[in-house]
């Protein structure tokens, strides 16, 4: 199970304040904590809402450099801007993750070329300019289009993690079931690697950790390969480890037992 640490995102108030204040120590500490908690990639979004792309480019280069000083874990560069993405990849070097590629204008072939040129993995969103499709069939159709485009750029499917799209249950009560159905069909019909932004499912609801950890267990059973989550949340990480254990995806219970010995399992 590939873990992408979600905490270095400027949509979070404290991260935004740290980016604006150029608080190196705070950002480095969050990166190190996620590394130690088991993140395989560390997501990085520095968009503070200033509306100035030049500033976001400089912020991205600055943040990538300072985080790479304290962790060897690769970063998931999180932006919708081609120029910001390229700046982040230039600062990072090969092996980063692109978050994300979609079928929207300017987000398909340009981002695929970046993935090829910088030897990146990538998160793929089955979304067109018309918006987020609500049904599984359309999500699969767009996924096929993106997969074919990736093939044209000589990018193997093993480097792409497709997101079945997770919409808040508080807005659309059937969204969880549709996400799980899409996830299952992505595996069954297309044989794709999969990921999701877990916390989207519980947005606006009370006891979000309860919703998140339960939905993560369901998604792992449906075939989830990766997730963008908070690796410092022991409740969510414990549910993930128990789910992988139950499905026979933890050889000799090694990861589960190590987490227990380290005091990282909670109920």
Written account of the structure:
The chain has 267 residues and is an alpha/beta fold. It folds into two domains: 1-71, no CATH class; 72-261, TIM Barrel. The protein has ten helices and eight strands. It has helices at 13-21, 24-37, 53-68, 82-92, 109-117, 136-152, 175-190, 208-222, 234-246, 254-261; strands at residues 2-9, 41-45, 75-78, 97-102, 121-125, 160-162, 193-194, 226-229. An eight-stranded parallel β-sheet has the order 7-6-5-4-3-2-1-8, with helices on one face. Strand 5 (121-125), helix 6 and strand 6 (160-162) form a beta-alpha-beta unit. Helix 3 packs parallel to helix 4 (82-92) and helix 8 runs parallel beside helix 9 (234-246). The longest helix has 17 residues, at 136-152. The protein is globular. The mean pLDDT is 97.
Quick structural gist:
This protein is of the alpha/beta class and 267 residues long. It has helices at 13-21, 24-37, 53-68, 82-92, 109-117, 136-152, 175-190, 208-222, 234-246, 254-261, and strands at residues 2-9, 41-45, 75-78, 97-102, 121-125, 160-162, 193-194, 226-229. The chain folds into two domains: 1-71, no CATH class; 72-261, TIM Barrel (Alpha-Beta Barrel), CATH 3.20.20.20.
What is the strand and helix layout of this fold?
Blueprint: E1 2-9, H1 13-21, H2 24-37, E2 41-45, H3 53-68, E3 75-78, H4 82-92, E4 97-102, H5 109-117, E5 121-125, H6 136-152, E6 160-162, H7 175-190, E7 193-194, H8 208-222, E8 226-229, H9 234-246, H10 254-261
Parallel strand pairs: 1-2, 1-8, 2-3, 3-4, 4-5, 5-6, 6-7
């Amino acid at each position: 199970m590939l873990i992408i640490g979600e905490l270095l995102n400027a949509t979070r108030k404290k991260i935004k304040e740290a980016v604006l204040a150029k608080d190196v120590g705070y950002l480095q500490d969050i990166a190190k904590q996620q590394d130690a908690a088991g993140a395989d990639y560390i997501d990085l979004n520095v968009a503070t809402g200033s509306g100035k792309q030049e500033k976001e480019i400089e912020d991205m280069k600055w943040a990538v450099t300072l985080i790479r000083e304290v962790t060897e874990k690769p970063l998931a560069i999180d932006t919708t801007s081609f120029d910001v993405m390229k700046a982040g990849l230039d600062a990072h070097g090969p092996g980063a993750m692109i978050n994300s590629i979609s079928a929207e204008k300017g987000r398909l072939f340009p981002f695929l070329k970046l993935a090829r040129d910088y030897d990146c993995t990538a998160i793929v969103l089955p979304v067109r300019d018309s918006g987020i499709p609500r049904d599984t069939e359309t999500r699969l159709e767009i996924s096929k289009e993106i997969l074919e485009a990736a093939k044209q750029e000589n990018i193997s499917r093993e480097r792409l993690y497709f997101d079945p799209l997770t919409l808040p249950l508080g807005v659309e009560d059937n969204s969880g079931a549709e996400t799980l159905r899409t996830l299952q069909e992505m595996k069954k019909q297309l044989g794709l690697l999969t990921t999701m932004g877990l916390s989207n499912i519980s947005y606006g609801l009370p006891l979000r950790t309860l919703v998140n950890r339960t939905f993560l267990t369901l998604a792992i059973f449906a075939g989830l390969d990766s997730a963008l989550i908070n690796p410092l949340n022991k409740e969510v990480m414990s549910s993930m480890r128990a789910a992988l254990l139950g499905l026979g995806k933890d050889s000799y219970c090694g990861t589960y037992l190590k987490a227990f010995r380290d005091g990282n399992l909670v109920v």
